[in-house]
Amino acid sequence: MEIQKFIEDFAAQFEETDSSAFSNETIFRNIEEWSSLTAMSIIAMVDEEYKVSLTGNDIRKSITIKDIFEIVKSKK
Amino acid sequence: MYNPFTLRDKVILITGASSGIGKGIAIECAKMGAHLVITGRNSERLNETFNQLEGQDHFQTIADISSDIGIASLCENLPPLDGVVHVAGVVKPKPFQFINRTELSFIMDTNFYGPVLLTNVLLRKKRIKKNSSVVFISSISGTLSSFVGGTAYSASKGALNGILKGIALELASKNIRVNSIIPGMIDTGIFNESSISEEDLIEDRKRYPLGRYGKPEDVAFAAIYLLSDASNWVTGSNILLDGGYTLL
After folding, report:
1. Which of B5, B70, B93, B235 has its CA 20 to 30 A from that of B107?
2. In which domain, by residue range, is B43 found?
3. Which among A47, A48, A56 has the least Cβ separation from residue B200?
4. CA closest to A39 among chain B residues
5. How far is B219 from B214, CA to CA, in rounded Å?
6. What is the CATH number of the domain that holds A48?
7. How many domains would you assign to chain B?
8. Residues ≥6 apart with Cβ < 8 Å to B160
9. For B8-47, how does the pLDDT look when each residue is reduced to its tens digit (9 = 90+)?
10. ipTM, two decimals
11. Taking the model in full, what pTM does it have?
């Protein structure tokens, strides 16, 4: 599981934000268009692409994109 | 004692009785004197509900009403019924863009096809007596509102609302009444471990004018009304139970 691919998949859930704004250490909650619907989209994307069930609480306790990546990895 | 809401000696089938709203309805209906057949998918939890039922002559049976086989096996040994409460239901919040046929089928099988085809088979087998009452636990979602990630769920409840009007009309000549309860959010843990976080739920709770989510008992009391002879002239209706949520 590659973090670079994960970051691309993560970025694809955003409409307005340029993909260059996303990296390991991006604090996703600070992205302007972040919302509870984005959180739900991330969860659905992870379910589809990685066959892993994240919960809303998994997203809540994560700060950076890497944090989510690590949870996905641990659940795989 | 005068009590138009009594369920004394009524035989009532309740699906989804192993937890949440179904469990609450079973416990309260037993207190009102009903004889129950409770069903659910999880034997351990169904037994927990069963052990909390007041009175005698209750039965429990494991069934998964999301399949025709599950419905057929449930209907095999049922006594004639004075009431049915369809509670079994699932929710899996997802943005609409991520919905596909598999996701829709998963929700529809349990929330729509299950209760509808169970009612159908019960009628074919003449297990629903004249002067009885069928209650669908629907939702404000799909009838009056929706929620983010709730497209499939809303569709299933909206479809249920449509078909119940037709069933109510067709069964009126047998004096079988068909109604639904459309609750707002009930505190049952249905969103635990889902894509909705605890913090989102705490915020959502604040949007209810009466200051709280509903309790299973709140739904149970409405179900008791619809099952009792007190609602003899009520059919095809949706009882709204939402702490004022849809006023805003």
Report:
1. B235
2. 11-241
3. A56
4. B195
5. 8
6. 1.10.1200.10
7. 1
8. B111, B112, B115, B116, B136, B138, B142, B180
9. 999 999 999 999 999 999 999 999 999 999 999 999 999 9
10. 0.83
11. 0.93
